[in-house]
Amino acid sequence: MNASAPTPDRSHQHRPGSVHDRRLLGRLLTYALPHAWAIGATIVLLVSQLSLKLLGPEIIQRTIDGPVARAMDAGSERSELLGEVRDYALQYAVIVAAMALLFLAREWLTHRTGQRIIYEVRNRLFGHMLRLPIAWFDRHHVGWAVTRSTSDVDALSEMFTTGISTIVSDLLMIVVLIVALVWIAPPLSIVALVVLPIMIYVSFRFRLNARRAFRATRESLSRLNAFLQERLVGLGVVRLFRRERASANRFDELNSVYYRDNLVTVRHFSLFFPTVDVLANAIKIGTLALGAYLLFEGRLTAGVLLQFWFYLVFIFDPIRELAERYNILQAAMAAAERIFGILDTPTEMQAAAVPADVPDTVEEVLAVRTGAAGADAPAPRVDDPDAPAIEFERVSFSYPTGPPVLHEVSFRVRRGERVAVVGHTGAGKTTLVNLLCRFHETPRGRVRIHGHDIDALSHHELRSRIAIVQQDVFLFSDTIANNIRMGNAEMPMQRVREMAAAVHAERFVEAQPDGFETMLTERGANLSSGQRQLLAFARALAADPDILVLDEATSSVDSETEALIEDATAVLMQGRTSLVIAHRLSTIVNADRILVMHKGELREQGTHDELMAQRGLYHKLYKLHLSSSA
Amino acid sequence: MALRGFTKSFARGLSYFPAVRTRWLKGIACLIPENALAICNLLIVGHIVNGVTAENAADRMTFEQVLVWTGVFVASMLASSALKFGMRWYITGASREFERIYRRDLFAHFMSLSPQDVAHIRTGDVMSRAVADIEAVRMLLGPSVMYVARAALLVPAVLVIMFMKDPIVASAMLVPFIGLALVVKVAAKPTQHWSTESAERLAELSTVAQESFSGIRVVKAFATEGIAGNDFKRMGQAFLHANVKLATLRGMTSATILTMKEVGVLIVLGIGGWRLVQGQLQLGDFLVFKECLDIALWPLIAIGWMLGLYTRARTGAERLDELFDLRPSVMEAGDALAPEHVTGDLEVRGLSFAWNDTPVLEDVSFHVPAGSTLGITGRTGCGKSTLVQLLSRQVEPPAGTVLLDGHDIRALSFDHLRRTMGVVPQDTFLFSETIRENIAFAGDHIGADDVETVAAIAQVDKDITDFPDGYEQLLGERGVTLSGGQRQRTAIARTLAADPPVLVLDDCLSAVDSVTERAILGGLRQRLQGRTAIIVSHRVAALSLADRIVVLDEGRVVEQGTHDELVAHGGLYADIEERQRIEEEIEAL
To answer: Do A107 and B380 touch (CB under 8 A)?
Structure first.
């Protein structure tokens, strides 16, 4: 592996300690840098806590070898010895209290710091993802993207909170304790020095096997899940083909594979704990036997033997845990790689090389809207009053794989003009809208609004001038009021009401359990499709754009709602330049001009009467789609 | 009362117990001596230390004696480790077996339900119950029982030992023991609360992310990336808060546990030291006291863990019962018929049907004589699809309204009905398996030749051979994604492969272009020779195969006759026919 070569999309095999991982770690640590003081404090707390931990058994040793040992020799004053024991106990009590406080402080500090770091990483990641081009979202599953901003960030979180702090503390503990063992009783430490490395080896070996077993388990579980999900979604097909039993058998097989993989894991764990126990007990008993020998030889005191015993017990837990920490680190590295992969994907503005001016706060949004942007914001553009509101000049477009969707389309929309776009399925109507809003980049040809090439406008500037109502109305799980004031979060309730009233949404909103404060369920599933459309109208009206782009819904609604929508559409278009992909006869007939698209080309344009008189494409479309609703 | 609640919530779980009883009992049989040996080991260590540090030479152990006791210890520790393995292996293994059966039964239960029975439950919800909830119940009835059993054996045992060694020190040692038990009990509830809180906040955060990504076009259209980001930040703040709370709580719990442990050592040092000086206690016993606390520590903590798990597992078990309580709306009759002779005569007689009080079909009657083809058409929402679902008994029709060869289809066995009547549903759902497996979905008896023959009739054979892996091509996320037309054609092949005497095609050519449509219809014409068929479509070309056509409007049969008759009649059918002519003209422009 060449360390200097840029390798953004490398394999999923992570070898911690490689140059690549160290670079990842370095990049992760830049997030920790602002919290350097907290991390420094953590280390101080850690070292103090460790020192006190070592001090405890030392006091025990002094008690045993001091007053207790002297009690065995006749002649010592009992009360004096008891006083000494009491003093040692008091010292120990102080240590206990101090350790508890240090431990608490350290826990609190590491978690607080870790969570803050993660909070920042998560926000940065999410903010970045929102600014990625639409094309990125077309390529990635929503579920995948959500996992990145939740689970992957959590894997990192574990590293920043428990991971690094405990790995440092565990390693330090193991090293210090081994030194301490050798220091207090060099000959006695022989058993531990021989067996401890075996224990460390076994522990790592186990984690390696356990990880492999875990991975197999996870894979069989995800196969089981995938099968389950498909059979649930395709339940109708399963029943239609009488495959209930066959499906149940197949599920049973997958379920059994998962079960057997789990048993492998169970076996590893069932073996690991007893094995480590055997080793730990071997160290204990070996040390004890050796200690007895040294004691008889007079080369060891009982107190030191006990102190040694205490230190030994301290060392077992971190060894058992060490390999586990290493796994956390590995998982975090894998997550970090994916997260940085996303952060390194250029956002819309980076891709388009226009100023990153998407405001982060409501105040900034308002500032941009009212033209009171800060000094560093680009000066508001001066519109050419004579330029058409919308202009397409020889625009062609095709998706990366596929036939051309638009071919040399040119048209102009005057200020305040109401233009309807009609055409058969696949005529390229929606693509017009996508290009106008720059959801897709760089078509061949030019698109201008008010004389400005849309490539020269920032995304924010462009989109705050255009309000779009999509065919598939997307509402957020928020209150109705907040869905309406989406483009303008500061809008007072009174205005929200007015907007809703203007598009005839007020009546049904008031009928909801909590009126405007009613929470919408996922995508507004608790509303009818007509109601959702009216809310989308209110939302667009609240944004008060120069240009309205409306992709009329084709879904059928009852005739009463139909009348409301028709009327609301007229309200929405009033005094605005509007481009409507029209399906409603009223919208089309009332339009100032109709553009007829067919197979990616602009075939006819004119008013309804003109086009009907031509008896061409429009006439046919009218007969096909519109005559029945007339 | 608590017990009754327990047996009620876990009734189903407990009913699986007999299946895992043997393994379970083996585990318990290991657990008891394992704990006894652990206690022995502790006593041996105490004995050796007592022996080597004895005050007067007469009581002192010789080094040979030390070695003998060391040998005893090694033997006992090996035995105890072997038993510990057995305990974990059997008990955890039993719990996994339990999980397997539980999940198997849940899936089997779902296989008896119809889509409309589960329409109100989200798939993700079923998934999480089938995995996470079963896991929670398993944990409670498996490992946690093991830990609690250990605690129940070890804690009293070490208490007895301590009191035998020295009642004074032992009495004092009750402080850390009770302290530990208290911490565990006190911390269980708030820990549970904040971990639920944290999980909920995370779910909220995921929802915001999910919605923002799904609605990314709206977010961008209103230039509200920053505001959506702020919502996310606010939710993140709540998540952060819950996590810090949880961590603080856990930190405090750990700190108290550690402190209790150290208080134990402090008592051993202070009071034990005092007793040592007085000559009432030996050094080995001093060590035994300290080890007693260590031994009891984990089982005590495990009890707290179990307390936390209990609520979770109980909710899980109840949520699982909700799924098991779903009742199938379409069920096989007790004495279901499976007539040997099939002619394929289908009759619908006075069929009326409503979905939740919304009438969909009103008094629909028609007869499809064996070997003939009936076309059904009408505008969107006229009730065509519901009619198909009823006459194929995907949805239960009223008794006596649908007759196959003179039998009410409700009286026929599912095996017979499905073998006799093949349906190409409107929703052409394919599985993430190979194309061959998808086409041969109806049964394992369908051979490679059959698959290729029907693929050719459905005009999907060339598409298939163009895939890198041909018929072995995997579909779905890990394989290729088919276009709507390819999916429909594959679905047609899937139904043809079963070679049913009665064939129902529910609007299954809507995504296929007109040239391919004609080719498929040509192939079907031959295949339909001598078979009964129902073709539901709004395309005139598809209906042209039919001997008779029924036109539905607002749930009623409004026109009936041959193609020519209906065109001449000048009603709804003629209107549909004219529109399609215009459409073709537009297409040609």
So the answer is: no
State yes or no: pLDDT of A10 exceeds 80: no
Q: How far apart are CA B385 and CA B381, in angstroms?
A: 8
Q: What DSSP state is assigned to residue A628? A: G
Name which of A71, A146, A474 is nearest B218 (Cβ-Cβ).
A474
Q: Which CATH class is domain B1-161+312-328?
A: mainly alpha
Domain that holds residue A545: 416-437+465-629
Q: Are B340 and B513 in contact (CB under 8 A)?
A: no
Average model confidence (pLDDT) for chain A? Answer: 82
3-class secondary structure, A5: coil
What is the DSSP secondary-structure string of A150-199? IIIHHHHHHIIIIIHHHHHHHHHHHHHHHHHHHHH-TGGGHHHHHHHHHH
Which fold would CATH assign to domain B346-588? Answer: Rossmann fold (3.40.50)
- The residue of B208, B211, B389 whose CB has the most chain A CBs within 10 angstroms, and thus the best one to mutate to test that interface, is B211
Contact B210 A244 (CB under 8 A): no
A384: left (phi over 0), alpha (psi -120 to 50) or beta: beta
Question: In 3D, which of A343, A341, A359 has the Cα closest to residue A128?
Answer: A343
Name the residue of chain B whose CA is nearest to A539's CA: B222
Q: What are B504's strand-pairing partners?
A: B423, B534
Say if the Cβ atoms of B244 and A112 lie within 8 Å: yes
**How many CB atoms sit inside 10 A of residue A57's CB?**
24
CB distance A590 to A620 below 8 Å: no
Q: Which residue type, as a one-letter code, is found at position A620?
A: K
pLDDT digits 0-9 by tens, A297-323: 889 998 999 999 999 988 988 888 777
pLDDT digits (tens, 9 = 90+) for B256-298: 888 898 999 999 899 988 898 888 888 888 889 988 988 888 8
* CA gap A618, A118 in Å, rounded: 58
> CA nearest A435 in B: which residue?
B221
The DSSP element (H or E) to which A525 belongs, if any, is none
Q: Residue B251 corresponds to which tokens in the numbers above? A: 């930190």
Query: Which run of H or E residues covers position B492?
Result: helix B484-497
Angle between helices B143-165 and B63-110 (to 10 degrees): 150
Overall domain count for chain A: 3
pLDDT tens, residue by residue, A145-197: 887 887 788 878 777 777 677 788 888 889 999 999 999 999 999 999 999 99
- The predicted-structure confidence for B194-232, as pLDDT tens digits, reads as follows 888 888 888 788 877 877 887 777 777 777 777 777 778
- With H, G, I as helix, E, B as strand and everything else as coil, classify residue B375: strand
Residues B340-358: tens digit of each pLDDT: 888 889 999 999 999 888 8
A60/B103 CB distance under 8 A: no
Determine how many CB atoms are found less than 10 A away from the CB of residue A36: 11
Contact B240 A116 (CB under 8 A): yes
ipTM: 0.86
Q: Are A459 and B223 in contact (CB under 8 A)?
A: yes
Task: Kindly list the domain boundaries of chain B, sorted by start residue.
Answer: 1-161+312-328, 167-280, 346-588
Closest listed residue to residue B495, CA positions, set B532, B460, B527, B454:
B454
CATH number at residue A485: 3.40.50.300
Q: What distance in Å separates the CA atoms of residue A51 and residue A56, rounded to the nearest whole number?
A: 9
The sheet with strand B532-536 has its strands ordered as B421-424, B502-506, B532-536, B373-378, B548-553, B556-561
Beta-carbon contacts of residue B192 (< 8 Å; ≥ 6 apart): B308, B311, B312
CB of B213 closer than 8 Å to CB of A148: no
Q: Which residues of A touch B236 (CB under 8 A)?
A: 119, 122-123
Indicate if A167 and A196 belong to the same structural domain. no
Residues A76 and A54 in one domain: yes
Q: Is the dihedral of CA B527, B531, B534, B538 positive or negative?
A: positive
